[in-house]
Amino acid sequence: MATAFKIVPKEYRDSVSLMQLSALLTKLSGVEQASAVMATPNNLALLEEAGFAVKAAGASAADLLIVVRGAETALAGALEQALQHLTRQPDSAAQTEAALKPRSIEMALAEAGAANIALISTPGEYAAAEAMKALRLGINVMLFSDNVSEEDEVRLKRFARDRDLMVMGPDCGTAIINGVPLAFANVVKRGPIGAIGASGTGLQQVTVLVDRLGLGISQAVGTGGRDLHREVGGIAMSKGLKDLAADPTTKVIVLISKPPAAEIAERILGEARKAGKPVVVNFLGADPARISVGNVHGARTLEDAARAAVAIARGEVPRQSYGDPVPPAAAAPPFAPGQRYIRGLFSGGTFCYEAALLLDEQLPDVYSNTPARPQSALADVWRSHHHTLIDLGDDVFTRGRPHPMIDYRLRNERIAKEADDPQTAVILLDVVLGYGSNANPAGELVPALRRARQIAGRQGRSVALVGHICGTDGDPQNLNAQTNALTQAGMVLTQSNAQAVRLAAAMVAGGRS
Amino acid sequence: MQDWILPALSIGSRVAADAAGHVRSVYRQACNVELDSGALLTLLSAALGNLPHGIRCALPEPKDLRVWLRPGQAVARDGSRLRTPRGRVTIELSHAAPWRCELPACDVYARPAVQAMLATLAVLRERALRGGFAPLVLNEADPGSPLEQAMRKRLLDSLPMLNRAGASLDAALAAKALEQLAGLGPGLTPSGDDFIVGYLAALHSRCQLEPALRTFLRGLTAPLARLAAASNLLSRQFILNAVEGEFAEGLTQLVAAIATHDRQLAREAAEQVASVGHSSGCDSLLGLLFGLCPVLVLGPAPSRAAGALRHGSQHAGESITA
């Protein structure tokens, strides 16, 4: 029987570790006894009393003493194992370090030094402060949060402008930066068309259509819905325009917005004319003919903007309008007497507004919570009146529940309600795919569509279900599967929102005639 | 690279205002820093109780100090902050509540207090199954290893000696007994040191009602300071705190529960203390009970090896059997 020991200077292991070490050594083959104790004078004396021959001259109470007794051949290996045990990094520490998440923009930036944009999604009351922190750190901001005051927006954007930075937002729901979809955005090819939009779904529609038409997107920049307000001054759109003008990969620029303040529109259009490359402008509701000058091409609809941009990028002359006449409404079911109205239930606010504009040109009595004209505002958003177009993403509907692109329950209830209305002829819908949206919209919608048809059928009527899918083959929801499921449920799908609106209008016009 | 800023929740009364030193050891919920002065500073997770030399901090998930701190890293006070320049962590002290141990007076002769001590003893018996002093003193079974046998033999010599010293208020004899215990046994803070801390907690509590004990306690100050100086960083700090009447919050709460005759609270507090380390908590409990009522530890039965040497503890024994 032999004894061997090792002194580990100033080794501070907790009691449990020391006990585990002792137990580990005792289990080793050839080791009869083992002990790991602090090398205090009393412990050294105790070891001697216990028969361990330990001559640890120079050891102090701060040192760890490992003693093993057993077969002589086993002791050196045992001490080696003990040292390995002590030097091993605890697994849990390594794991927890990996699990650690940055808690601030500054910390995240320290982790990813090359990042130059911060996506901020916090309650509105904190969002401006976080955005300012990012700007002070010299990086651009995508401000997904809403409920940020216009004063804060102006302050942030002016601060950013002075530093040649961009603030996208607040309430900026969509962007595609360097091919990466941010927030609610679709997976599109990269290509020569850059888009700047004050509207999330507007940007989605244009980028999706560009992708379907075979080209791609260089950058898609959101500005937030108020950017072209007089008070904000279109700072983000100006910055985006300047950047895309300077971007060699961008051959054509598309600007998208609801009607800007007149002086802001003039200034932005003036900048567009100096961009040095073609610029397609879709200011919804504005007269395209008054916009089209030189390199600037006005577009009436989102689809027109996408098609014009693609045509220009291909070296073709864009058409003034791509709103081809809808063929005779063969897809329309026979309507019963009294069935004469379109009921549009939208998850995208810009789709709703575009629909209101297009229908208002064709039909009387079009009401909406995003009206084309002030007098067309819907008095009670919970009750349809004549032709009715509802943006279900409005704050009235989203308090306490997710956005309708995510949560379909409210829309499904409203579909049933509209189907039960004997005046409803067409239910007009949008279905938005891409990141951020519901993982399986067809799975949500199909039961509601079937129920709508049953409700109407029981009353001896048929309702037409019309819509479009804003999505690409690359989107995670599987565009083909969504299309098939919705088609089988009786929905007539078009390629764009504008087409769906025109088809719906043609259906009710046909039914009326 | 920006530091994580951890807010300190409380700061112990013995934390030096100009603390600066190096990390010596880091565990999940505690980090020991050896200060340039030779004192110990312990950074603690909020889940742990206060220490006189400790700073309790709110830790973010995953609540593991090892994420930021490594042995050898420098730590320095910078105004209201404690910084670890290479540790990516800064501890903000400005909102920390000061914490000071306030050990209550315990009347060990009162029957309800003894009942609370018995509740504590019950916990100790349940928890002290292996390792340290407590199983060797409280259990009938023979110790397994030669090392434990030697340790038990040492205890059979020193504990009755300490008991006699306490009964006769002989500080020199007590110092001799404590000298045999200091640094003895397993653990980073050896069992003997933990025992001494618990023992001193009992004496500091008792002497508030038993003036005669104060001289006895004063007589232990210098010997214990010498013993502490020869011990390791952690033991030294705990013993020096104890000499000054300052103890960990858990031990303080246990003494308070006994002093207020709250058996349930005593049991809960004893559980907390017993959970510290592998055997440290139990050894502190043993020292506390020994200091409050030696007969509880040495036992009344003459058949027991330790109990055979229990003379000098009649005052407590009378209380129990009254």
Structure notes:
The complex is a heterodimer of chains A (513) and B (322). Chain A is an alpha/beta fold and 513 residues long. Chain A has four domains: 2-96, Alpha-Beta Plaits; 104-171, Rossmann fold (3-Layer(aba) Sandwich); 193-323, Rossmann fold; 341-512, Succinyl-CoA synthetase domains (Rossmann fold, 3-Layer(aba) Sandwich), CATH 3.40.50. Helix content of chain A is 40%, strand content 20%. Chain A is built from 18 helices and 19 strands. Chain A has helices at 15-26, 41-49, 72-87, 91-99, 105-111, 124-136, 150-162, 200-212, 235-246, 262-273, 288-291, 302-313, 349-362, 395-398, 409-419, 441-458, 479-488, 497-512, and strands at 2-8, 31-38, 64-70, 117-120, 140-143, 167-168, 174-177, 180-183, 190-197, 217-222, 252-257, 279-283, 296-298, 341-346, 366-368, 387-391, 424-432, 464-470, 491-494. In chain A, the strands form five sheets. Chain A has a six-stranded parallel β-sheet with strand order 15-16-14-17-18-19, sandwiched between helices. In chain A, strands 10-9-11-12-13 form a five-stranded parallel β-sheet, sandwiched between helices. In chain A, α6 (124-136) packs parallel to α7 (150-162), α13 (349-362) runs parallel beside α18 (497-512) and α16 (441-458) runs parallel beside α17 (479-488). Chain B is of the alpha/beta class and 322 residues long. Chain B folds into two domains: 4-99, no CATH class; 111-321, no CATH class. Chain B has twelve helices and nine strands. Chain B has helices spanning 111-127, 133-138, 146-168, 171-181, 191-206, 212-229, 233-243, 249-259, 263-274, 280-292, 294-298, 314-321, and strands at 4-12, 20-26, 30-35, 40-45, 54-57, 74-78, 81-84, 89-92, 97-99. An eight-stranded mixed β-barrel of chain B has the order 1-5-4-3-2-6-7-8. In chain B, β7 (81-84) and β8 (89-92) form a beta hairpin. In chain B, α1 (111-127) packs parallel to α9. The longest helix of chain B has 23 residues, at 146-168. Chain B is globular and about 60 Å long. The chains are: A alpha/beta (513), B alpha/beta (322). Chains A and B meet through α1, β2, α2, α4 and α5 of A and α3 and α7 of B.
